[in-house]
Amino acid sequence: MRKRFWLASLLLLLVGGSSFVSPSPVAAVESSDVALIVNQKNSTQDISFSALRKYFMAERTQWPDGTRVVIAMRAPAGQTERSVVLRSIYNWNEDYYRTYFRQGQFNESIQSVPKELNTTYAMIQYVHYTPGALGYVRADQVDYSKVNVLSVDGRKPGDAGYRLK
Amino acid sequence: MKQTPTLAIISLLIIFLINQQTHAQTPASLAAVREGNVSTHIANESAPQTRRHILPLRAGETTAGSRVTLAADAPLDDYADYRKGDQFYVLVPRAEMAELRGELAGRGFTATHLARQHGDVLLTFQLQADTEARVTQKFNRLEINFITQPANSTNDHHDAAQDTAPQTVASGNDHELIQQLLRRIEELEGQVKELKAGAAANTALPMPAAQASVPTEETSEAEKAQAVLDEHGHEGGAGPHMQIQGFADIDFRASNQKGTTNAFNLGQLDLFLTSRLSERFSVLSELIIEAQRDNTFRFEIHRLLLRYAPNDFFNVSVGRYHTAIGYYNTAYHHGSWFATAADRPFLFAFEGQGGPLPLHNTGLSATGRIPSGSLGLHYIAEIGNGRAVRSPADRSVQSAGDENNGKAFNLGLFARPDWLAGLQTGFSFYHDKLTPLNAPNVSQEIMAGHVVYRNPRYEWLNEAVFIRHAPAGSSQVFYTPGFYTQFARRFGKATPYFRYQYLNAPADDPILSATGRRNGPSAGLRYDVTTYAALKLQYNRTQRRAQRPLDEVIAQLAFTF
Question: CB of A66 within 8 Å of any CB in chain B?
Answer without folding.
Answer: yes
